[in-house]
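Please check our next protein.
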Amino acid sequence: MAYRAVTPNVLETVYQPLQRGFTMSIELREPTLVWQVERLADRITQPAEHVLELAVQRYFDVMEQEAIHDETEAFWAMHEQLRGQYAGQYIAVYQGAVVDHDGDVSRLEQRIRERFGLLPVLIAPVEPAPPRELRWRGGRLEPTP
Protein backbone atom coordinates (compact mmCIF):
# COMPACT_ATOMS: atom_id res chain seq x y z
CA MET A 1 0.00 0.00 0.00
CA ALA A 2 1.37 3.39 -0.94
CA TYR A 3 0.16 6.69 0.42
CA ARG A 4 0.64 10.15 -0.95
CA ALA A 5 -0.87 13.56 -0.54
CA VAL A 6 -2.23 14.50 -3.96
CA THR A 7 -3.26 18.01 -2.95
CA PRO A 8 -3.46 19.55 0.53
CA ASN A 9 -6.98 18.15 1.02
CA VAL A 10 -6.77 14.87 -0.87
CA LEU A 11 -5.12 11.67 0.30
CA GLU A 12 -4.65 8.92 -2.24
CA THR A 13 -4.02 5.35 -1.31
CA VAL A 14 -2.83 2.98 -4.00
CA TYR A 15 -3.25 -0.69 -3.26
CA GLN A 16 -1.72 -3.37 -5.43
CA PRO A 17 -2.54 -6.87 -4.21
CA LEU A 18 0.06 -9.44 -5.19
CA GLN A 19 -2.44 -12.18 -5.96
CA ARG A 20 -4.72 -10.27 -8.30
CA GLY A 21 -2.34 -7.93 -10.07
CA PHE A 22 -4.51 -4.81 -10.11
CA THR A 23 -4.28 -1.42 -8.47
CA MET A 24 -6.89 0.22 -6.31
CA SER A 25 -6.76 3.91 -5.69
CA ILE A 26 -8.75 5.59 -2.95
CA GLU A 27 -9.03 9.34 -2.76
CA LEU A 28 -10.34 11.15 0.27
CA ARG A 29 -11.65 14.47 -0.97
CA GLU A 30 -13.49 15.53 2.16
CA PRO A 31 -11.07 17.84 4.01
CA THR A 32 -12.40 16.78 7.41
CA LEU A 33 -11.71 13.10 6.66
CA VAL A 34 -8.22 13.90 5.42
CA TRP A 35 -7.56 15.90 8.57
CA GLN A 36 -8.92 13.10 10.79
CA VAL A 37 -6.81 10.45 9.09
CA GLU A 38 -3.67 12.56 9.32
CA ARG A 39 -4.27 13.46 12.99
CA LEU A 40 -5.00 9.86 13.98
CA ALA A 41 -1.95 8.64 12.09
CA ASP A 42 0.19 11.18 13.96
CA ARG A 43 -1.38 10.27 17.30
CA ILE A 44 -0.83 6.53 16.95
CA THR A 45 2.47 7.00 15.10
CA GLN A 46 1.36 4.90 12.17
CA PRO A 47 1.30 5.71 8.46
CA ALA A 48 -1.93 7.15 7.08
CA GLU A 49 -2.47 4.09 4.89
CA HIS A 50 -2.53 1.95 8.05
CA VAL A 51 -5.29 4.18 9.47
CA LEU A 52 -7.24 3.81 6.22
CA GLU A 53 -6.77 0.03 6.23
CA LEU A 54 -8.07 -0.13 9.80
CA ALA A 55 -11.08 2.04 8.92
CA VAL A 56 -11.97 -0.11 5.92
CA GLN A 57 -11.49 -3.33 7.91
CA ARG A 58 -13.75 -2.04 10.69
CA TYR A 59 -16.36 -1.08 8.10
CA PHE A 60 -16.27 -4.59 6.65
CA ASP A 61 -16.49 -6.07 10.16
CA VAL A 62 -19.66 -4.06 10.85
CA MET A 63 -21.14 -5.03 7.47
CA GLU A 64 -20.41 -8.70 8.21
CA GLN A 65 -22.03 -8.46 11.65
CA GLU A 66 -25.13 -6.87 10.11
CA ALA A 67 -25.29 -9.59 7.45
CA ILE A 68 -25.02 -12.36 10.05
CA HIS A 69 -27.71 -10.61 12.10
CA ASP A 70 -29.98 -10.60 9.03
CA GLU A 71 -29.26 -14.28 8.35
CA THR A 72 -30.04 -15.09 11.99
CA GLU A 73 -33.37 -13.25 11.70
CA ALA A 74 -34.14 -15.25 8.55
CA PHE A 75 -33.19 -18.48 10.34
CA TRP A 76 -35.64 -17.81 13.18
CA ALA A 77 -38.38 -16.67 10.81
CA MET A 78 -38.30 -20.04 9.04
CA HIS A 79 -37.35 -22.15 12.06
CA GLU A 80 -40.58 -24.16 12.20
CA GLN A 81 -40.24 -25.11 8.55
CA LEU A 82 -36.55 -25.91 9.06
CA ARG A 83 -37.37 -28.21 11.99
CA GLY A 84 -39.62 -30.24 9.72
CA GLN A 85 -37.07 -30.51 6.94
CA TYR A 86 -33.60 -30.39 8.56
CA ALA A 87 -34.04 -31.47 12.22
CA GLY A 88 -30.76 -32.72 13.67
CA GLN A 89 -28.69 -31.23 10.84
CA TYR A 90 -26.71 -28.05 10.32
CA ILE A 91 -27.87 -25.57 7.73
CA ALA A 92 -26.17 -22.71 5.92
CA VAL A 93 -28.21 -19.54 5.36
CA TYR A 94 -27.14 -16.92 2.84
CA GLN A 95 -29.27 -13.95 1.77
CA GLY A 96 -32.22 -15.34 3.70
CA ALA A 97 -32.26 -18.78 2.05
CA VAL A 98 -30.92 -22.20 2.97
CA VAL A 99 -28.05 -22.84 0.57
CA ASP A 100 -26.74 -26.14 1.98
CA HIS A 101 -27.14 -28.58 4.87
CA ASP A 102 -25.32 -31.53 6.39
CA GLY A 103 -25.27 -33.64 9.53
CA ASP A 104 -21.53 -33.00 9.80
CA VAL A 105 -20.76 -29.34 10.49
CA SER A 106 -17.13 -29.68 9.35
CA ARG A 107 -18.11 -30.95 5.91
CA LEU A 108 -20.72 -28.21 5.63
CA GLU A 109 -18.23 -25.50 6.62
CA GLN A 110 -15.75 -26.78 4.05
CA ARG A 111 -18.29 -26.71 1.23
CA ILE A 112 -19.51 -23.26 2.25
CA ARG A 113 -15.96 -21.84 2.28
CA GLU A 114 -15.29 -23.36 -1.14
CA ARG A 115 -18.51 -21.91 -2.54
CA PHE A 116 -18.74 -18.54 -0.76
CA GLY A 117 -15.19 -17.79 0.35
CA LEU A 118 -15.22 -15.13 3.05
CA LEU A 119 -18.79 -13.97 2.51
CA PRO A 120 -20.89 -14.00 5.69
CA VAL A 121 -22.92 -17.21 5.75
CA LEU A 122 -24.74 -18.34 8.89
CA ILE A 123 -24.17 -21.98 9.83
CA ALA A 124 -26.52 -23.15 12.56
CA PRO A 125 -27.87 -26.38 14.01
CA VAL A 126 -31.54 -27.13 13.56
CA GLU A 127 -32.63 -28.62 16.86
CA PRO A 128 -35.55 -31.08 16.71
CA ALA A 129 -37.18 -29.47 19.78
CA PRO A 130 -38.62 -25.97 19.65
CA PRO A 131 -36.43 -23.29 21.23
CA ARG A 132 -37.09 -22.48 24.88
CA GLU A 133 -38.22 -18.97 25.64
CA LEU A 134 -36.62 -17.34 28.66
CA ARG A 135 -37.84 -14.21 30.42
CA TRP A 136 -35.94 -11.93 32.74
CA ARG A 137 -37.67 -11.63 36.14
CA GLY A 138 -36.17 -9.95 39.15
CA GLY A 139 -32.58 -10.90 38.52
CA ARG A 140 -32.98 -14.49 37.32
CA LEU A 141 -34.00 -16.29 34.17
CA GLU A 142 -37.08 -18.48 34.22
CA PRO A 143 -38.44 -20.68 31.43
CA THR A 144 -41.79 -19.59 30.09
CA PRO A 145 -44.66 -22.05 30.71
